[in-house]
Amino acid sequence: MPDRRRWRFPWSLLAPLLLAAVLFSAWSSTAPPGEHAGAPAARPPAEPPLSHASVSTDRPDAVAAAPPRELAVTVAAPAPPTFEQRVDELVAIGRRTAALAEQDDSDGAAASDREARERFSDLMGAFADAGERALDMVAQLPEGPPSSLTNGRRIVLQLVLGAALERADHDAAVAGERTAVDALVQATLDVMPGTAVAAEVGEHVLARQRFLRLAHEPTVLALVRLAATEQFPRSTATTLLLTLWDNLQAAGERSSEELSRLALLALTDADPSQRTASCRQLLRDPRYRGLVLAWLRERGDRAVAAEVASLAARELPVADALVVLRELAGTLPRAPTAYLALAHREPDAVADGYRELLAANTHANVRCDLVTGVGMVRTPLGRELAELALHGDPAVEVRLQALFALTAQGDAELGERALGVALDDPRIGSDPVRLAAVVMALGNLEASGDANAIDRIAQRLRTLPLADESRQRLDALVRRAVPGQASAALR
Amino acid sequence: MNAKWIQAVALLALSLAAAAQDTCPRERAVSVPRAVDYGPAVTCPGLTYSMPGLTLTTVTGCPLFVTVTPAHEVIEASRDRTKVRVVGTDPVKIFFFTCQTRYLLFLPLSSYCTFDRESTIGTVMHLTTMECGT
Lengths: 491, 134
Description:
The complex is a heterodimer.
Chain A: H1 4-7, H2 11-30, H3 60-65, H4 83-102, H5 106-126, H6 130-140, H7 148-175, H8 179-191, H9 196-206, H10 217-228, H11 234-250, H12 256-266, H13 272-284, H14 286-299, H15 302-315, H16 318-328, H17 336-345, H18 347-360, H19 364-375, H20 380-392, H21 396-407, H22 412-424, H23 426-429, H24 432-443, H25 451-462, H26 468-481, H27 486-490
Helix pairs in contact in A: 4-5, 4-7, 6-7, 6-8, 7-8, 7-9, 8-9, 9-11, 10-11, 11-13, 12-13, 13-14, 13-15, 15-16, 15-17, 16-17, 17-18, 17-19, 18-19, 19-20, 19-21, 20-21, 21-22, 21-24, 22-24, 22-25, 24-25, 24-26, 25-26
Chain B: H1 2-21, E1 27-32, E2 35-38, E3 41-45, E4 48-51, E5 54-57, E6 60-63, E7 65-69, E8 72-77, E9 82-100, E10 112-131
Antiparallel strand pairs in B: 1-8, 2-7, 3-6, 4-5, 7-9, 9-10
């Protein structure tokens, strides 16, 4: 009797292969083209590149243009990941790296970070149109409070878009042909008004970079007009316009003279972005600086003066900025933020500016701001300058400013001593308005946690002619800072 | 003639004295809206920091500091015989932030823009305008 088992059709062997073939066939007919065409990471992308026009479409043309594929049932190699999958993989690596860093696993974090760099390099190598694909994903990022995944995607996509712009700009420099990089920049600008996230990502990759050129001027100006109707962030529009003007000059597409003439025409423009760009251009040029300052004085608009002060503190050489800020003092008596920004850049220059004005005994308001700029930061220079002002400045308002700086140094003993010196000054100790400032300066000691110092100064303050508002503020401070003194404060 | 001259001098002296006695500063209180100014930022994920009545946000970058000047009034010259009176004071605050980065990572998902400390850096006044002589 023949052994039936020897002649049975080998279904048990073939069934899994057939099942795999059916599943693979079904998957390949539904998956987007290019996602599994077997391109190794370092080769050009298997997916048809996105055209700029299709950045925010469903790309039906890409599906139609996909070449026919052969089923390779016997080759079960995993399909290369899509662009989106690679982005999410990077997000996952980034989160894992962050977790390792949180756990102080430096070796693990470093290894994970290396993997992130390698995967990022793979992604950029696999997709020649990585920038356009990143823009496509950016346009679809949800608005509202970001989730961990959304935030991770935004960070990765920003990196991809920035790297794609760098790559395209480098290629343009080599080939002497800017069509590709200009198109990617244009696509970025086009996506920006779509969502707040897109505007943010676009600003991140374009602001203060060399990519914006003359070809993009109409679009940048269109964004400025959108900002005028509050359909686009004003600060982003201004930053892009400033970057564009910088690049036009640096690339020789417009001369400094041409830009200054343009700025003169736009100085009186009602649009704040145009006005800011014009002011900056003209303030940079010593020939026009006086003109702008005279225009600002004549205009007498505090808001515009504050805007120019901020601009000068961030953009002008520190010595020039100090001159501009001093000139603006007539219109803008106080500009602490501008001086803080300036002192962040060059604290020594700001400190020298204070010493000069102290020697001349002029511009007391400016001296206040100079002391704020250097003194509010916890550095030896800040402390030294504030002590000089407290003990040596003839203007009582500057002394009060130094008091704020010294009480904010995080040193209760220093703060208490400074408060004592201030209260010894009869111009302060007898004036309820100035005493109100002393009470607020005492509040700065709260962070130091020295309840006794606060209590001692509070007791002295209660003997002085405090306004009702100051007395209430002092009582509230004592209740918070001095344990067990709540009832005493209420008495 | 002499008497008229004396009268004229007396009138002039009286009017000068009256002008000298008019100590009205001819000033008025002008409102200034609240200002929130962001200082220079360092590379870091953005900031969201809330306090009563105000939320500070940046998209990308961590501001080293933010100053908050409350709405207040300042003194301006006036044609009218008015003066200003201080009716209150408010603190000008500075909030310092720092970008906490444990490691300089390629994907900066472990960096956070966090609140560091706050201080009062000055005061602003609340003023009211009133007629001179009141």
